[in-house]
C-alpha cells in the first residue's frame, strides 16, 4: 500500500503482468483455502505448519495464520520433551527471521517472535540482541526493532550504560538518528532518576551535531516542561460577591481534589465551579460563601483553602474596612515560567548560547539555530533578551514561512510572559498588551487579580473560554483586532466597560455571553460587521438591557 | 534545510552536505479536486472479487470497507454502496467471544471490531450484532496495567487503547473499563518531545499520536497533553513540498494528512500547518486516470489513502466535502445523530 510506483507499460507488458498475477492469485487462494479448511477441521499438525509457512513468508500481515501457527505449536508442545520443544521453537525463530528479511516492519512477525521467546525453555537473549543490532544497522529507524530490543534488554538484564554506548555508536555513524536520541531520553533518567538542578546537559547533542534534537531537548528541559510545584497559587476573596476564587498551579478537577474551605476555624460546605462550562479541568475555581458570612465590612475574617490531595493550603486574611483581599504565592520570575538555574547550569547554557551564536554567523538562515537561541535566551534572561528575541522571531518567519503561525503564537506567549513578569515587579493590577502582534492569549490563569486589561491593536481572533478566569476584570479594551468570538466574556462579575471597536463580531449570537456580565454598562462595538444586522439597536437592547452606553 | 557542521583540522567549521527527504511535485500534477472520479473508483473497488490486491488484503477487509464507506459518505455518495450485503457480512464476522474479525474465517481483533462498529454507526444499524458481547470482548482485553491487547494473543499497543475507547464510546458503554488505569497507561507512553509511541518507551509516531490524542479526547483528559510541545512536533512534519511525514527524516505520505492534521485539530493547533501547501500536496496525490489517492504523487492508489486524502481536505475546510470528526474519522453528522461530541482543545 505504500511506496508502489505507478509504472506505465505497453499493452503486451500489461497482458504479461495480468497473467502473472492471475497465476499468483490462484496459488494464494488455493493455499489459503487449504489452510482455513484444515483449521476448521481442527487439525494441528506439521502440514499446518508447512502451509502457513508458505503463505506467511510473502503475506506476514495475514494475522490469522500466525494465530493458527501458535495453536499448532502449543499442541505440538504437549507431545514433546523439553529439548524437542527447544528445537521446535528455535526453528520457529529461524523461520521468523526469514520473514523479517522480506518484511522487517510486520507487526505480526515481531509479535510472534516475542511470543516464541515466552515459550522457549531456554531463550537466547544474546542472539536476540544480535538480531536487533543487525536489523538496526540496516534501518536505524525501525521502531518495531527498537521496541523488540527494549524487551530483550529488559529480559536479559543488559545495563543502561551498555545501551547508552550502543546509541553513541549509532548516533556517531548516522545522520537520521532521531530513534537513538529518543532511546537516550528514556535511558538517562534511569541512570540519574533525580537529576541535580546543576547537572550538565549531557542529554543534548551539541548544537552543531544535531541542531534539531538540540532544540527539542532545550525546549523540553528548560521551558515547556517547567514542572511547577503543585500548590494553590492565589486565593481571592470578595466581600460584595461573597465569593472565593482560587488559582491552582495546574489545571485540576476541583471535585476530585479533596478541597476544603475553612472560615474563621469553621469548615464550610461549599460547591466548587469552574469559570466556564467548557473548562472541566481548569486552574481557576470559584465557590460562594454562605450568605452574610463575610458581607459586614467591619468584621475581620481568616480564610484557608486546603488542597488535601497535595497536602498543601493557602491562607487569606480579610481585614476590617477592606472590600476584597488576596494572597499570592511569592514566586519570583525564576519559578513562574522556567526552571530554577544554578550558577553551574547557567554557565552551561551560556556556553551553548555562545556556540549557537557562532553557528548562526556561519548560517544565518538556520532555523534550528535561531529557535535554540531564542529558547536559551529565555532560559537565561527573558526580560533582558526581549528585543533580540523579537528580531529572531522575525527572521524565523522569513526563513521558515510554513510555520509562521507557530512562531507568531510562540512569540505571543513569550511577550505575555514578559508582561506578566513586569506586572509582578510593579505590583499593579493593570495589564497592557497593546500593539504586540499577539495572535493568541495564554497564561490567563495568572491574571485572576487584573482589573484593567488592554489588548488593543493585535491580531487576536477570539477571547477563549479561559478568559473567564479574569474574575476581577472591570475594564476591557480590545479594539483593532479580528475578534469573532467572545466565549470567554462569561459571568465576569465586575466587568463594567468593554471596547471592541474594529473587530469581526458578525452576528447577534456572538454577543450572547455578554448578557451574563451583569455589571456591564458601557459597550463599544463600532467598526464591526454586526452593525449591519437588521434592527440591531433594538435586538441589542433586548439582549443587553443593562447596557446604558452603547456605541455602534 | 538541516546542516551538518564539523570541525576541520584548523578548528574552523566545514559545511557538509544537506539533504531533506521529500518529494518534488511536478507542474502537471492534479491541482483540482476530482471528487466524482474518486466516488467512481470506490464504488467499483471490490466489485471484481478476483482482483489480486483485493484478495491479498482480505486480512483487513472490515477496515477496507470502513475506509470506502466513510469516504463515500463524506462525498455524499454512500447510497452507491451495498448496505444489505455489508450488514450481512458484518453479522457473519462476529465470533462467539463477541469480537469481530476482518473477514469470514479470520480471527476476531479489536481493530476490526472498531471498524465494524463504525460501519454500523454510519448505517445506524448497530443492533444487528450482539452489542453486549462486543462490550464484554473489549472489556476483557484490558490488562492489569490499563493497556489493551489487540486480541487474546496479547500484543499491546496504544492503537488498541484507542480502538477500545472509540468502540465503547460509539456504543455508549465507556463506563465498563478501568478508566483511570487506561489513561495512566496511555500517559506512560508520552515522550520527551510531547508525542506518543506504541508502548512505554516507544518513539513518537504520528499514527500513535493520533490514537493517543483521540483516546485522551474521548476520555476527557486532553489537559494532560503538552499542546504547545506536541503541536510543534506535529507542525514540523510539514516538508517543503507541503506534504506531511509521520516522524522526522521520513518521506511525506497523504495518510499523514490525516494522522497529523487530526491530531493538530484535537489539540487546537491546526493553524500551525501551512494549509494551502498541504492542500496542493494532497491534490497532487490524486490519480486523474483511475480516481483515488496514492501515498505520494505518481504512486498506485488505494482506498486507504483515498479516505485520508479526502478527510484531510475536509479538515482543511473544503466545502465540497462533509465536515469530518477528527477523533473518530467519521462524518460529523453521524456523530451528532449518536450524540457524541468529544472535547477538543482550543
From TrEMBL, chain A:
EC number: 2.5.1.60
Family annotation (SMART domains): LRR_SD22
Record-level GO BP terms: prenylation
Residue ranges, compositional bias (Low complexity): 197-211
SUPFAM superfamilies in alphabetical order: Outer arm dynein light chain 1, Protein prenylyltransferase, Rab geranylgeranyltransferase alpha-subunit, insert domain
Signal peptide: none
Residues of the Rab geranylgeranyltransferase alpha subunit insert-domain domain: 232-331
Catalytic reaction equation(s): geranylgeranyl diphosphate + L-cysteinyl-[protein] = S-geranylgeranyl-L-cysteinyl-[protein] + diphosphate
Transmembrane portions of the chain: none
Keywords per UniProt: Leucine-rich repeat, Phosphoprotein, Prenyltransferase, Repeat, Transferase
Pfam family, one: LRR_4
Region (Disordered): 1-23, 192-215
Coiled-coil regions, chain positions: none
GO CC terms in record: Rab-protein geranylgeranyltransferase complex
Residue spans of biased composition, Basic and acidic residues class: 14-23
PANTHER family (UniProt xref): GERANYLGERANYL TRANSFERASE TYPE-2 SUBUNIT ALPHA, PROTEIN FARNESYLTRANSFERASE ALPHA SUBUNIT/RAB GERANYLGERANYL TRANSFERASE ALPHA SUBUNIT
Described function: Catalyzes the transfer of a geranylgeranyl moiety from geranylgeranyl diphosphate to both cysteines of Rab proteins with the C-terminal sequence -XXCC, -XCXC and -CCXX, such as RAB1A, RAB3A, RAB5A and RAB7A. Catalyzes the transfer of a geranyl-geranyl moiety from geranyl-geranyl pyrophosphate to cysteines occuring in specific C-terminal amino acid sequences.
Protein family membership: Belongs to the protein prenyltransferase subunit alpha family.
UniProt name for this protein: Geranylgeranyl transferase type-2 subunit alpha
Source organism of this protein record: Cyprinus carpio (Common carp)
UniProtKB/TrEMBL annotation, chain B:
Recorded superkingdom: Eukaryota
Source species: Cyprinus carpio (Common carp)
Gene Ontology terms, MF aspect: metal ion binding; Rab geranylgeranyltransferase activity
Database matches in InterPro entries: PGGT1B-like, Prenyltrans, Ptb1, Terpenoid_cyclase/PrenylTrfase
UniProtKB keywords: Metal-binding, Phosphoprotein, Prenyltransferase, Repeat, Transferase, Zinc
Subunit structure: Heterotrimer composed of RABGGTA, RABGGTB and CHM; within this trimer, RABGGTA and RABGGTB form the catalytic component B, while CHM (component A) mediates peptide substrate binding. The Rab GGTase dimer (RGGT) interacts with CHM (component A) prior to Rab protein binding; the association is stabilized by geranylgeranyl pyrophosphate (GGpp). The CHM:RGGT:Rab complex is destabilized by GGpp. Interaction of RABGGTB with prenylated PTP4A2 precludes its association with RABGGTA and inhibits enzyme activity. Interacts with CHODL.
Family statement: Belongs to the protein prenyltransferase subunit beta family.
Pfam short name (any one): Prenyltrans
Cofactor: Zn(2+)
GO cellular component, one term: Rab-protein geranylgeranyltransferase complex
Cofactor binding, per record: Binds 1 zinc ion per subunit.
Record keyword Repeat present: yes
Gene name of the encoded protein: rabggtb
Functional summary from the UniProt entry: Catalyzes the transfer of a geranylgeranyl moiety from geranylgeranyl diphosphate to both cysteines of proteins with the C-terminal sequence -XXCC, -XCXC and -CCXX.
Uppermost EC category: transferase
Source organism phylogeny: Eukaryota, Metazoa, Chordata, Craniata, Vertebrata
Chemical reaction(s) catalysed: geranylgeranyl diphosphate + L-cysteinyl-[protein] = S-geranylgeranyl-L-cysteinyl-[protein] + diphosphate
Protein name per UniProt: Geranylgeranyl transferase type-2 subunit beta
Domain Prenyltransferase alpha-alpha toroid, residue spans: 33-330
Enzyme Commission number(s): 2.5.1.60
Amino acid at each position: 500500500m505504500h511506496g508502489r510506483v505507478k509504472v506505465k507499460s505497453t499493452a503486451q507488458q500489461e497482458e504479461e503482468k495480468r497473467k502473472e498475477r492471475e497465476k499468483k492469485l490462484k496459488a494464494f487462494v488455493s493455499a489459503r483455502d487449504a489452510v482455513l479448511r484444515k483449521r476448521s477441521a481442527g487439525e494441528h499438525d506439521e502440514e499446518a505448519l508447512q502451509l502457513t509457512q508458505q503463505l506467511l513468508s510473502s503475506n506476514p500481515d495475514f494475522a490469522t495464520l500466525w494465530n493458527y501457527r501458535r495453536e499448532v505449536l502449543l499442541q505440538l508442545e504437549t507431545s514433546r520433551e523439553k529439548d524437542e520443544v527447544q528445537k521446535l521453537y528455535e526453528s520457529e525463530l529461524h523461520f521468523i527471521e526469514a520473514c523479517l528479511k522480506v518484511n522487517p516492519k510486520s507487526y505480526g512477525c515481531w509479535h510472534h517472535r516475542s511470543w516464541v521467546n515466552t515459550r522457549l525453555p531456554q531463550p537466547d537473549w544474546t542472539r536476540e540482541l544480535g538480531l536487533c543490532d543487525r536489523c538496526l544497522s540496516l534501518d536505524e529507524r525501525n521502531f518495531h526493532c527498537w521496541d523488540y530490543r527494549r524487551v530483550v534488554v529488559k529480559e536479559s538484564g543488559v545495563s543502561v550504560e551498555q545501551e547508552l554506548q550502543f546509541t553513541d555508536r549509532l548516533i556517531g555513524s548516522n545522520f537520521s538518528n532521531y530513534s537513538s536520541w529518543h532511546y537516550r531520553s528514556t535511558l538517562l533518567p534511569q541512570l540519574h532518576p533525580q537529576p541535580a538542578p546543576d547537572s550538565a546537559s549531557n542529554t543534548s547533542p551539541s548544537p552543531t551535531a544535531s541542531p534539531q534534537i538540540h532544540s527539542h531537548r532545550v525546549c523540553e528541559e528548560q521551558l515547556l516542561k517547567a514542572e511547577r510545584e503543585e500548590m494553590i497559587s492565589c486565593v481571592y476573596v470578595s466581600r460584595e460577591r461573597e465569593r472565593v476564587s482560587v488559582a491552582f498551579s495546574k489545571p485540576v478537577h476541583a471535585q476530585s481534589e479533596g478541597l476544603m474551605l475553612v472560615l474563621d476555624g469553621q469548615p464550610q460546605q461549599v460547591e466548587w465551579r469552574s469559570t466556564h462550562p467548557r473548562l472541566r479541568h481548569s486552574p481557576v475555581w470559584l465557590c460562594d460563601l454562605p450568605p452574610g458570612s463575610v458581607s459586614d465590612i467591619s468584621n475581620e475574617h481568616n480564610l484557608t483553602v486546603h488542597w488535601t490531595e497535595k497536602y498543601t493550603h493557602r491562607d487569606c486574611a480579610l481585614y476590617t474596612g477592606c472590600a476584597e483581599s488576596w494572597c499570592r504565592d511569592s514566586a519570583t520570575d525564576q519559578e513562574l515560567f522556567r526552571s530554577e538555574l544554578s550558577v553551574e547550569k547557567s554557565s552551561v547554557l551560556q556556553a551553548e548560547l555562545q556556540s549557537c551564536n557562532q553557528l548562526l554567523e556561519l548560517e544565518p538562515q538556520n532555523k534550528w539555530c535561531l529557535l535554540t537561541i531564542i529558547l536559551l535566551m529565555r532560559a537565561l534572561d527573558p526580560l533582558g533578551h526581549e528585543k533580540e528575541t523579537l528580531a529572531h522571531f522575525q527572521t524565523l518567519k522569513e526563513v521558515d514561512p510554513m510555520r509562521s503561525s507557530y512562531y507568531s503564537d510562540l512569540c505571543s506567549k513569550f511577550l505575555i510572559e514578559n508582561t506578566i513578569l513586569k506586572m509582578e515587579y510593579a505590583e499593579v493590577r493593570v495589564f497592557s498588551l497593546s500593539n504586540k502582534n499577539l495572535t493568541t492569549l495564554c497564561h490567563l490563569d495568572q491574571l485572576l487579580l487584573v482589573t484593567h486589561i488592554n489588548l488593543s491593536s493585535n491580531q487576536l481572533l477570539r477571547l477563549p473560554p479561559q478568559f473567564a478566569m479574569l474574575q476581577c476584570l472591570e475594564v476591557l479594551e480590545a479594539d483593532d483586532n479580528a475578534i469573532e468570538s467572545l466565549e470567554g466574556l462569561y459571568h465576569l462579575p465586575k466587568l463594567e466597560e468593554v471596547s471592541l471597536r474594529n473587530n469581526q463580531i458578525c452576528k447577534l449570537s456572538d454577543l450572547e455571553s455578554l448578557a451574563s456580565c451583569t455589571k456591564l454598562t458601557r459597550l463599544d462595538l463600532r467598526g464591526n460587521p454586526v452593525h449591519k444586522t437588521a434592527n440591531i439597536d433594538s435586538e441589542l437592547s433586548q439582549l443587553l438591557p443593562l447596557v446604558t452606553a452603547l456605541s455602534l | 534545510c538541516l546542516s551538518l557542521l564539523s570541525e576541520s583540522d584548523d578548528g574552523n567549521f566545514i559545511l557538509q552536505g544537506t539533504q531533506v527527504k521529500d518529494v518534488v511535485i511536478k507542474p502537471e500534477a492534479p491541482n483540482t479536486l476530482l471528487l466524482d472520479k474518486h466516488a467512481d473508483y470506490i464504488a467499483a473497488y471490490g466489485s471484481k472479487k478476483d482482483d489480486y490486491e483485493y484478495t491479498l488484503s482480505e486480512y483487513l477487509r472490515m477496515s477496507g470497507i470502513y475506509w470506502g464507506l466513510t469516504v463515500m459518505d463524506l462525498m455524499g455518495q454512500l447510497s452507491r454502496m451495498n448496505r444489505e450485503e455489508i450488514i450481512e457480512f458484518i453479522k457473519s464476522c462476529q465470533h462467539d467471544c463477541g469480537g469481530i474479525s476482518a473477514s469470514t474465517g479470520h480471527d476476531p481483533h479489536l481493530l476490526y471490531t472498531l471498524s465494524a462498529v463504525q460501519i454500523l454507526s454510519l448505517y445506524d444499524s448497530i443492533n444487528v450484532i450482539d452489542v453486549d458481547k462486543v462490550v464484554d470482548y473489549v472489556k476483557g482485553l484490558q490488562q492489569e496495567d490499563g493497556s489493551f491487547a489487540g486480541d487474546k494473543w496479547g500484543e499491546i499497543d496504544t492503537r488498541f487503547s484507542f480502538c477500545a475507547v472509540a468502540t465503547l464510546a460509539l456504543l455508549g458503554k465507556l463506563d465498563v473499563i478501568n478508566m483511570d488505569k487506561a489513561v495512566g497507561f496511555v500517559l506512560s507512553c508520552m515522550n520527551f518531545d510531547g508525542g506518543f509511541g506504541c508502548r512505554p518507551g516507544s518513539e513518537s509516531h504520528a499514527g500513535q499520536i493520533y490514537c493517543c490524542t483521540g483516546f485522551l479526547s474521548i476520555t476527557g483528559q486532553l489537559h494532560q497533553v503538552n499542546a504547545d510541545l506536541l503541536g510543534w512536533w506535529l507542525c514540523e512534519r510539514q516538508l517543503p513540498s507541503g506534504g506531511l511525514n509521520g516522524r522526522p527524516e521520513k518521506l511525506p505520505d497523504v495518510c499523514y494528512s490525516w494522522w497529523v492534521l487530526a491530531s493538530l485539530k484535537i489539540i487546537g493547533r491546526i493553524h500551525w500547518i501551512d494549509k494551502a501547501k498541504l492542500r496542493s500536496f494532497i491534490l497532487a496525490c490524486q490519480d486523474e486516470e483511475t480516481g483515488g489517492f496514492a501515498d505520494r504523487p505518481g504512486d498506485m492508489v488505494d482506498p486507504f489513502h483515498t479516505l485520508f486524502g479526502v478527510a484531510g481536505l475536509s479538515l482543511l475546510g473544503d466545502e465540497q466535502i462533509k465536515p469530518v470528526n477528527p477523533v473518530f474519522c467519521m462524518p460529523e453528522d453521524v456523530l451528532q445523530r449518536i450524540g457524541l461530541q468529544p472535547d477538543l482543545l482550543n
